[in-house]
Structure formats: C-alpha cells, structure tokens
Design goal:
Chain A is mostly beta strands and 114 residues long. Chain A has strands at residues 4-6, 10-13, 19-25, 31-38, 42-51, 54-57, 64-70, 73-78, 87-94, 104-105, 109-113. The radius of gyration of chain A is 13 Å and the shape is globular. Chain B is mostly beta strands and 110 residues long. The chains are: A mainly beta (114), B mainly beta (110).
Amino acid sequence: DVKVTQSSRYLVKRTGEKVFLECVQDMDHENMFWYRQDPGLGLRLIYFSYDVKMKEKGDIPEGYSVSREKKERFSLILESASTNQTSMYLCASNTRQVPPDTQYFGPGTRLTVL
Amino acid sequence: QKEVEQNSGPLSVPEGAIASLNCTYSDRGSQSFFWYRQYSGKSPELIMFIYSNGDKEDGRFTAQLNKASQYVSLLIRDSQPSDSATYLCAPRGGYNKLIFGAGTRLAVHP
C-alpha cells in the first residue's frame, strides 16, 4: 500500500512565524504535490515537484516556497505566516512512469495562523 | 473559464436513488479522468478513473466520458447515506498532474 505521511495533523502558528510542513512518501514516486483546500474553493495547487531539486509553481505559489532534497520528501515552507494562510494543506504523490496514475494523498495538515 | 467545472451542489437524493454528478473540462488534450470522494475533514480517495469514451462500471459506480463534448460524469446507483460526501473530478494534465474541480457535495437522505 502506498503511504503518504504528513508531519502534523494540526498546527497552530503565530503571524510572522516561519512554518515548515513536511511530507514523506514510500513508493519511490517522482511527482509530489502541495495543495491547500478552503471551503468553496476546492483543491488549489501551490507547488509541485517532478524530481529531486526540481519544482514548478502551481496556481497559488505566492507566500510559499518548497524544498525537495530527497526523492521521498517534499517540504512546504511559509516564510512569514499570515492569517490568510490558515487552511487545510494536503500533500500528494504519484509516478510519471505508467499513466494513467492516480495521486495518493496524505492525511492533511490543518494549519491555523493567529 | 475554469479548467474544470462542477456544480457545487448540494445535490440531494433519496436513499436508493441514482445520483448523477457532472463535470466539464476545458483542455481538449486531456486523456484520463479521475473521480475522487472526500468526506468532511478527510483526504480525497480515488473512486475510479476512465480514459476511453463511453461507460466504465465498478460496482455501484459508473463513469461516463464524452471527449467530443469535454464532459465526464459519475453515476452512483442505489445511493446510500454513506455516499454523502464531496465528489471531485480531475482530468490528468502534463507530468501526470491532476487538475481538480471544486467538487460537488452529495447528500443522500434516508
């Protein structure tokens, strides 16, 4: 079974703090994704990575950065957290080798910025 | 125009009825389409995918694809209260990236 894990289920941070969200997958997937999900807005792609050290901006990259130093790990960084970044953050992964292939999601991190 | 359009709902159906969820997409190059179910507070989970025109059945679920009309749908037969969730449509894009719609909320009432 594919497993995607995220470092925290719930996180509370203060405005201006630097926040790290970690995601790890155990299926040797090339692709990893970070989404945020807000009521009525669906899943919005923040960044994705198709290989180690490679990244592409998604639809809403402003205020975020990412890091992928190892294939299994993809980190989302909020350089200076703001209240409008309060959201559910979902990590996902899949392979590029055999389409069609689904994306496997982690359990999500609910981040609250006060 | 959004890349993937879904009616936000809620779509309310009685238990035992057929629920019909619809999705239109803008990228004519999309070849594969995924349907996910998401319960409140949980991650999306895959129901099924389809990549050929026509119907694909899996248990109580049937996906329908019409590439000429850029339309994909999901039918749920014999709907159960446990089917109450948000259903997300997702065409596959470049790099095997999925493009998600905002989802349709389904409510199945006893």
